[in-house]
Amino acid sequence: MNLQETVLMQLRDLILRGEFEPGRRLAEQQLAERLGASRTPVRAALVTLEQEGLVQVNDTGGYLVRQFTPREVADAIAVRGHLEGMAARLVAEHGVSRQLQGDLQACLDEGDRLLAANPLTLESYAAYATMNDRFHALVLEASGNRALQRAVALNDKLPFAPASAMLPMQGTVALDRDWMLYAHRQHHMLFDALKRGEGARAQSLAVEHTEVAQMNMRLALERRAESQQVMPGIRLVVG
After folding, report:
1. What are the strands, taking DSSP E only, across the chain?
2. Which residues make up the CATH 1.10.10.10 domain(s) of the chain?
3. 8 A C-beta contact, residue 60 and residue 54
């Protein structure tokens, strides 16, 4: 990874972690000093982040941290659902290889094991998020559609759009664990549809799967004070 890519990744991460207030001006020199880089890669990173939708240009040509409405976040989650639905349909139609079947089954087994804990620990929650990301990535990769993969990658750069971004908050509340159990049952059903070659069913399940993320977004906004401790990027959502 070159310096420009590193600066982009670091700056994106700072914004998504809520390190800057929405509407705050991002001064190139201050960012360069904070990241230990020159202004050139910082300026290039800001241009890219504007294209991704994380920052916006003000009247004087400077960059501001964007704020998002709950509707914008919900829309990004919905887009991910439809893109992943297309991926699931393609995988079902292509057929599931023995390697993919084994990899997906390993994810399901790991999720089952982790969710057996009650209450969930922070360690098991983090491990579940890793498993969840892998499950979604395997299906997307197996779709074989590069344009689709690029579209998901771009959408994932918006706050709370990635697969594990809106998992329930640390699973400390009984309702959160129930939602995770429900979401993981959907993983099992999706796997079954993929193996059976049921493209329409797989697509429908993948789209429906994102309703868990939508519900968790609504819960996070209702519990905003608690949310900020474990999900600081919630500060970017205003309204």
Report:
1. 25-26, 55-57, 63-65
2. 3-65
3. no
Quote the longest CA-to-CA distance of the chain.
57
Separation of alpha carbons 3 and 98, rounded Å: 39
SS3 171: coil
Q: Which fold has domain 70-231?
A: Four Helix Bundle (Hemerythrin (Met), subunit A) (1.20.120)
CATH among 1.10.10.10, 3.90.79.10, 1.10.3720.10, 3.40.190.10 for 3-65: 1.10.10.10
Classify burial at 236, counting beta carbons within 10 Å of its beta carbon; exposed 0-12, middle 13-18, buried 19 or more: buried
pTM for this one? 0.83
Lowest mean pLDDT among 15-19, 140-144, 208-212: 15-19
3-state secondary structure of 237: strand
* Nearby residues of 62 by Cβ (< 8 Å), 6 or more positions away: 25, 26, 27
Query: Number of H helices and number of E strands within the chain?
Result: 10, 3
Quick: pLDDT tens for 169-211.
544 455 677 888 999 999 999 999 999 999 999 999 999 999 9
CA 179 from chain centre, in angstroms, equals: 17
Q: CATH 1.20.120.530: which residues of the chain?
A: 70-231
How far apart, in whole angstroms, are the C-alpha atoms of residue 183 and residue 192? Answer: 14
User: pLDDT by residue (tens digit) across 21-68?
Assistant: 899 999 999 999 999 999 999 999 999 999 888 999 998 989 999 999
Rounded to the nearest 10°, the torsion over CA 66, 87, 216, 74 is: 40
